[in-house]
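Q: I have two molecules that I believe assemble together. Could you output structure tokens for the complex as a whole instead of separate predictions?
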Amino acid sequence: MRSREMTSSDTFVDLTKRLPAGGSCRNGRFARPRRALRPWAATLCLVILMAAAPARGAERGADGAESIGHPDVYFADKDSVSVLQSGGPVSTMRTCGGCHDTEYIAEHSYHASAGLDEWAEPGSTPGGRPWDSSPGLFGRWSPLSYRHLSTNADDRLDLGTTDWIRLIGPRHTGGGPAVSSRTGIPLDRLNGGLPGGAVSTEWAPDTHVLDEETGAPVEWDWGRSGTAELNCFICHISSPANEARNRALKEGRFEWAATAALESTGLVKRDGEGWKWISGAFETGGHVTADRLSIVPPASEQCGACHGIVHKSNDPVIPSFGDLSQYATETKGRIYSAQRLFGSGMNLTGKEGLSRPWDIHAERLMECSDCHFALNDPAYAADADISRPIHLAFDARRLDVGEFLLQPNHNFAKGHSTQGTVADELDGTMRRCENCHDPGSAHNWLPYKKRHMDRLLCESCHIPTVRAPARRATDWTVLTKSGGPRVEYRGVLGSPHDPAALVSGYGPLLLPRMVEGESEAKLSPNNVIASWFWTYGDPPRPVRHYDLERAFFREGRYHPDIVLSLDSDGDGDIGPSELILDTPEKTSAVRQRLEALGLTSVRISGEIEPYGLHHGVATGPWATRRCTDCHSHASRISASFTLASSVPGGVVPVPMGSANVLMSGELSLEGGSLVYRPATMADGFYILGRDRRRGIDLAGMVIVAGVLCGVIAHAGLRLYLSRTRRIR
Amino acid sequence: MTTVRVYMYTRYERIWHWLQAVLILALIVTGIEIHAPGALRLLGFETAVELHRLLGFVLIANAFLGFFYNLTTGEIKQYFSSSPDYVSMAARQAAYYLRGMFRGEPHPFEKGRDKKLNPLQKTTYVIILNVLLPLQVITGLLLWGTQNWPRFVGDLGGLAPLAAVHTIGSWLFPAFVIMHVYLTTTGPSPAAHIRAMVTGWEELEAGHTTGAPARPEGTHRPRGRRNATGRRRRSRPKERSGTREKGTQ
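A: Yes, here they are, computed for all two components at once.
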């Protein structure tokens, strides 16, 4: 009966409940073993286990990780020839494609397409910027990585597809825009393998790269670089050589990227400018054993390679910042680890008392794929609305394992991301807290339980504090000496790069989040990052990093005009505290430098982007529990949230339209800092103990005071007259 | 001056009144702690919320019982007047409070068992019991019930307008209580009215009472007084309405 009350997305098959303990299943019927056979059966099992022990040990891969019994793999190049024979790079589409439908996998993976399948004219993506061409990594500009993926609508080439792979490729699985042009033509057929290096006056974003020295578009030789196929190895072998892969991508040797990822397996080694297969590591016929490859189900570490720190070792957690390859750690302070906070290598405030893990789900050995599973994985059996006939409350049909392994859907279940906009049609397919937990039974202590559940995401209370620093502001209106932006972090006193810096963490900003299908918004925890940058032209485009460098630097040093305007203390250098456009004169000086490069309508733009927090979950004792944490004048819901220590150019940033949270609060300057003060009342929230209408209270006080004064005057007059009469 | 003792308030009326008084005061206190937890820290927010909710339901029950009592005993008629001069009567009463009282003028209206309330009291109580109390009850119920009827509450504009109305009512109640308590001191003695609401018996000036007893009766002693033999009565007499001449002054 209970399942009838659940929504379709809630219906998961719990196989563990099917078999009572101590029994076995035969011919679909449960049968208990005979009592008399138990001693014999136990002895037999012991013997089998002992005999099997060495065999299990043999199933471990080269790095000791447990293998999954995968058959040997024939390593083929793009022509299906053994790599031992051709010496060429391995083709995952051919190698893995020998058994799996890799075409299907590549087509059903938003990690691969990265928005290419949602490509649109610049400015036409919902809630996007005027220069955004897709909602994904390929086409949606980020103020963190800054470089703009150029389109045919741009007059200056910034980031062509080649440079996108070199810059963003380390956070991309390969496939999608790394093998196919925006018009669907394979990239390696775009120029027919023309020799690279020829300077062209005409350019196209798929075929040209920006020469960092001259700023001229240079045609790229796709025939030489090859393309970066969907790299199965980075997720499906236990320890891929990710750094080697990233190096190959940065060098523009895209075709070798998948091969480079195998350096850790001993199958291949770097040989000068290329890679050389080690024939001794292969079986006969060019096959490789699964143990050698150490093929494993994708673990959280693989996700963490791009999404943020996943820490499973006993070493203290020490995150590095300023590194966008740890994206969620940088933007949210997310650390997925079972390690107790007091074991961290960071100098956390009150560290000795922080006995909770970084994330309770990590402590309970949950992997990312437990919630973000393949949508057609029969083990998880998500009964999505899109596949379930409307007349069925539960669709019992499932793919069998063979079918799934042939065509595993690599569109992973996802939630309603605040900052992520790719594959929105899959929003809400993942498991939410309430799909596994029964909040009703665990929150009987909570007054107005249903109301709290209706208006709060579980994370709002169960992520009371993020204990790691996170980015607060990115200021591209100036360049540091290293050519990067001025960056601010929250949750740390001093620089997050300093191991001695005191890390206080931060309390998330609770913002109302609108979720499709729900009638009311729910408060959700967020970090918010403010960004400022120069734009030019109409329609606007972000000023290229190349142009910014030309404006700010000359011969490796700050340009004299920049020094003249920004060097406040007159020491001939621009220190960190001087590197900010806090006066109209400084802003004007930089603008003039940019206009001198031929840019028109140069202005500073600013935006605010919320980043939803869903990890770093704490258990009940660490969660927000006291009523007055929210229901008081000092409510955390209304607590002001500092966005930046300054406002470059005096430009007040605007919230991104693509975020699914409401930001109806007020932005104000407090002591020079830009502060956001939530106004949840305007968004339909009324927090008892915090929200009140001052006019009503004022009128009420006047009425009560008036009555009191009237009574006192009346009583006083009565007393006075009474005494007067008595005297008379 | 001759005074008569009139059995003005029945036991139920007195219990109802004092229960209502306690409830309203407790609701005001807990309400302040909920509305502005920083201004009053007596019970703690959570306890205040729970108690406020509990007291609210007791208040509702008491209000309904009072309404039922007034309806079935006919006491409800005390709250209404069919006199065409009602407005001028209310004006006379107001003039008495503002001027006549200071000049030692007699009360403009006779009080009695069947005429407990002067015109201003009638107006005030009708507003309190038929407008303010229901408004508080309804808005309070909706504030409590929003978790069960979120759509309905949403259609009404959400919690904010409901809470605003509830807050307005919450301010009017203390204003009423202050006025109400003060006016109890305007009897023959400052404590006469309060004593009457405790004992049920009220001393009124002879010739300034009106209305026949609900049930004709002879003299009888108020509860707890000594009897002719000087002993305390062990069992409480059945309360009855009536008047008793006390003596002359």
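A: One point stands out. The first helix of chain B runs from residue 11 to 35.
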